[in-house]
Amino acid sequence: MTSHTSTNSQSISSEVDILIVGAGLAGLFLALKLAPRKCTVISPAPLGTAASSAWAQGGLAAALHPADSVALHAKDTVAAGGHLVEPVVASLIASHGPERVRDLLELGVPFDRTENGALALSLEAAHSHPRVARVAGDLAGAAIMEALVNAARAAEHITLVEGVKAISLLQDQHGRIGGIVAQNIEDETTFRMPAKETVLCAGGSGGLFQVTTNPRSSRGDAIAMAYECGALIADPEFVQFHPTAIDVDRDPAPLATEALRGEGAVLRDAKGRRFMYDYNEAGELAPRDEVARAIHAERIAGRGAFLDTIEAVGDEFPHHFPTVFAACEAAGIDPRRDHIPVAPAAHYHMGGVVSDIWGRTTLDGLSVCGESSSTGAHGANRLASNSLLEAVVFADRIATRLREEKLHSTSGLLFGEPPIDLSPADLSELRVLMANHAGVSRNEEGLTLLCNWIETKEDIRGGARALTVSRMIARAALERKESRGGHYRTDYPQEDIPARTYVSKNDDLKPIITRVEMDSTADAKSA
User: Fold this and answer.
1) Among the CATH numbers 3.30.70.100, 3.40.50.1100, 1.20.58.100, 2.40.170.20, which is that of 422-494?
2) N or C: which end of the chain has fewer CB within 10 A?
3) pTM for the complete prediction?
4) How far apart are CA 317 and CA 185, in angstroms?
5) 377, 267 Cβ separation under 8 angstroms
6) Which CATH superfamily is domain 4-238+350-404 in?
7) DSSP states of 486-500 as a string?
8) Residue pLDDT, tens place only, 432-490
9) Per-residue pLDDT reduced to its tens digit, 366-384
10) Residue 113 known to be catalytic
């Protein structure tokens, strides 16, 4: 069997049943799970080369050990998320995790094994038990994507369209989504791709920040497209900064996986002093947001931050963590003998397009999966390695729904002008401002300065998507006068009443922000 691959706009201008925007883990797993229902997947780059999923190092979290449990995994998820996680969703992803790992094993993903043949499970920050299935130490994302790409290319029901990106959603006069306006990457021609159901699986927004582990092109376009059409957005202020990006002046920054600290690596300042216990009694295994803030504070104080893997990993480094070792080697660092300079980097956007537990958005004809979604699984701070888990669990649920659902054609589709891009100079300035004022530490003065800069640029550049998403992040961060999870306000360092943020647009695309308090009596056991 062979897949059908096309970049010819003439051959894909007729309506398709299901159009999947994005070919990362969420998009390809969804496409495979839809069998035998036909679907079309679009990707701006050759499959497996531009998705954040392929760069994931840690692995996929699931309660697979006999001493572990779904209840414990769900409890850890709720706690790490600053009590903004929806407990039902935490239990949902935890309960389906083992089955989805088995799916990936059947697709040929070579998860690491112990000597007795069981899956090797790593301990990562804020997990109460080792539960992260990994590949060759830090190659999980690449190995999973390789298996999915191979399977998708061999699947008869999947049409793969490479070299094409979505630039707008098609919408009828009643608000129903009916496909996309697409652009050919090579010649920048645009054309319509109508669809009965459109699923956004198009990644996050780390590229809005100066230092990121995401592809630079990941600037929240999927969130902006849905927002422009009236979809509800949730929790845009919550951005997770990975504590240990390797600080070697590369864009995007290479990552030193959390699993290194799970193996016993420690954080030191420039003089060799361990500093994490000054900030949290869990030391290096504190939640990601707390480790990121500690490293940020040490760097701001001029003491620097370095990851010491010499004793914990030592000579086994090239074999146990080949991706990290190669990144260090390229920068002239030998982690078997040298400390690795590290810095926090924008890594994952907890906020996104609101979906229900079946992946439906608030717009008919539009579903969402992966990092551009807000399912309620991550709250204020995603638990390590829950991102790949959420993607495969919700991809499976969307596929289950769409395999049986009667889909409807949409007529009278309308769309606006293609969005205006920021100039390279403006984008560079925006990334610096976002890092400085909407980064690891925030305050009213900096956020106000950032919001004013964005509004000034919007008067000039209209609806540039990078400005639209940055404005949502900054405005929501300014209005959240507390610290919680990945959102830390130096002027409001304490937590307030747990409340989620919801954002909708007015007629001028300006954000309307609503706060909804969480049920403080709910917990993961109630699911």
Assistant:
1) 1.20.58.100
2) N
3) 0.91
4) 39
5) no
6) FAD/NAD(P)-binding domain (3.50.50.60)
7) TB-BTTB-S--S-EE
8) 999 999 999 999 999 999 999 999 998 887 779 999 999 999 999 999 999 999 999 99
9) 999 999 999 999 999 999 8
10) no
